[in-house]
Model the fold of this input.
Amino acid sequence: MLLARVMKSILITTGPEVAEFEKRFSEYLGIQEAVGLTSCTGALHLALLRHGVSVGDEVITTPMTFVATATAILQAGATPVFVDVSRESE
Done:
């Protein structure tokens, strides 16, 4: 089993097992391509880039979040804009 092989190996985030997982996962989903990432920060960063976020852009996010949210925005070259959504802050 692929999962057992990966867990027993020293390469848990790279290597041929990851490529095989990406291929099999994309086939399972019926999509052209899937990318395995090592963290949610990486996934957020990739999603921002995929949607064209880049230098000079501002990305609105909540201040009540984990640091990875702002980190991914900064890695994309954009500026995080923290917005508190509440009736009291209108």
Summary: The chain has four helices and two strands. The longest strand covers residues 58-61.
